[in-house]
Design brief:
The chain is 28% helix and 27% strand. The radius of gyration is 29 Å and the shape is globular. A hairpin with a 3-residue loop joins strand 4 and strand 5. By secondary structure, it is α+β, with helices and mostly antiparallel strands. The protein has an eight-stranded antiparallel sheet, with helices on both faces. A five-stranded mixed sheet has the order 1-2-7-10-11.
């Protein structure tokens, strides 16, 4: 086949093949670019909560003393005044790690820096406490409803990224399924770090430094 024959054959083939015009994607691309982006719901909640928390503790002591309900952060309610009525403590049940995992609707995390707990207690099938000597680590689903209540009166509460550090003793309560505040016993809470791991709120309490608490939270 000569070059002329090949050119003629290709010309004839082009007439027989239908190639549709490419679609105009300009409109759809511009629509996607200009559409508002959906923000991560948890990230948005964290930013709003921490901003409110910082503002609440930046005001004068006189203003702060008049604020009753400060904030709800990751299933923890912060107040300056206790509710008008407080119910007796919920009974706690000491269980094995395997049993606790069966009862909890989430994965129980054992920080690498703490290892296996000395004791484990559960409440209502939705709240677990891991004991490590004088340290305690509470875990619960912080995306459903409030589970813990705290009374704070003094300065020093610190925002560290998406975590909250409380460097002083304070009263703590358990909030049951009906929203009723229940006494946690005669002893208040000590130094505390609160953060979330996925949907689970972690509350580490004990006689430890902020640096040590942060190390544990990262493990």
């Amino acid at each position: 086949m000569t070059d002329d024959d090949l050119e003629a054959a290709l010309h004839d083939l082009r007439q027989k093949i239908y190639v549709p015009a490419p679609p105009d994607l300009t409109a759809s691309v511009l629509t996607r670019i200009n559409a508002p982006r959906k923000r991560n719901r948890w990230l948005t909640a964290v930013i709003a909560a921490l901003t409110a928390f910082a503002i609440a503790f930046a005001v004068s002591p006189a203003v702060r003393a008049g604020v009753q309900h400060l904030l709800e952060f990751a299933g923890v309610e912060f107040r300056t005044e206790a509710p008008s009525s407080i119910a007796p403590p919920l009974p706690s049940q000491e269980v094995s790690l395997d049993e606790a995992r069966k009862q909890m609707p989430f994965e129980i995390h054992l920080p690498a820096q703490l290892g296996t707990p000395d004791k484990i207690t559960v409440h209502e099938g939705r709240f677990v406490t891991l004991y490590y000597g004088e340290l305690r680590l509470d875990q619960f689903d912080g995306t459903i409803q409030s589970t813990l209540g705290k009374l704070l009166y003094s300065d020093g509460v610190e925002q560290i990224g998406d975590k909250v550090w409380i460097p002083h003793p304070h009263r703590i309560f358990y909030i049951d399924r009906n929203g009723e505040w229940r006494d946690k016993g005669p002893h208040g809470a000590g130094k505390t770090l609160i953060w979330q791991r996925d949907q689970v709120t972690m509350r580490l309490e004990g006689d430890l430094t902020k640096e040590r608490a942060l190390q544990i939270s990262e493990s």
